[in-house]
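Data availability (excerpt). All sequences and predicted token strings are deposited with the supplementary files. A representative entry, Class I SAM-dependent methyltransferase, is shown inline so that the format can be inspected without opening the archive.
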Amino acid sequence: MNTPNALTQPDPAAPAPERADTPYRCPICRQPLMVSASPSGLRCLQHGLFPLVDGILSFMPAWDRAFDRHWEGNRDASPAPAKERAARRFLTPLRTEAGGPPLRVLDAGCGDGVHVAVLKDQGWQIFGLDIAPAALTNARRRVGDGWTPIHGDVSALPFADATFDAAFSFGVLAYTPDPWAGLAELVRVTRPGGWIGVWFYPRRNDLPGRLLAAVRSVVVRLPPFLQARAADLIVPFLSVLPTISGVSLANATWRQCREVVLVNIAPDTLAFFSPAEVEARMIGSGLVAITRDEGAPITLWGRVPDARPDDKAEESPAAEPE
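Structure token line:
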């Protein structure tokens, strides 16, 4: 887990802070945060200030630049149509089956905002969290208003338990040091009966899968400008890589294709799993009613039980332990 940028000490001359009536919590200790007149942002009494930067609450260190470089380099690249179609397909269970009042939804790893854009017409309260400020800036410019961008880490979500009616992460958990810790965080911040959706890169032992592994073993060691040049060499062959979205020069621009290639070959960390492994982890996290999109692996949705095991324990303190 990255340590948030909460290094400032309380100012004795500043006005006394008041508790903020928000769903946010300190990602380190999970305690409620305080709001004060100056400086702008939210403060943990133990871990300091989480600032408001360009209108975006930041719960991450300013020096975390790995994915910021990626999105700065693709600032003007709108998502390819095939990427937008993949986003709509992934969100279909949530958009068609979730009912009731307007939902509060978390996109954990929102990137360029393609999923936020799909959900905006639902009339829901959408939070888009990403580790890269440049991704959030790009998404806000492209998608517009009507949602809340948050600078944070999916492995240490800055929200209270049971804050959301639904939470999902499309492909992003695979880039974290511990994908299952991120899944546990999604479950933690989702209310009983709420929805959890994940998309993972599939493990492939065929020729495209082996080619991707070989390319990654070389490209991850290169400086960013050489990674971009390597991506340009791969763009004409994108259709044979296991990207799942179907993006290629046949349906997207060169810039859009390069962005897809880079996100597959440049990051230091990228894990691959089988559908059975991911489903077993979701069940192990307590999720029920698991549904799969067999035509677009690995796409899984599940629901948080209406009564979690720890809730039952609180209701029946005299129950015998198993």
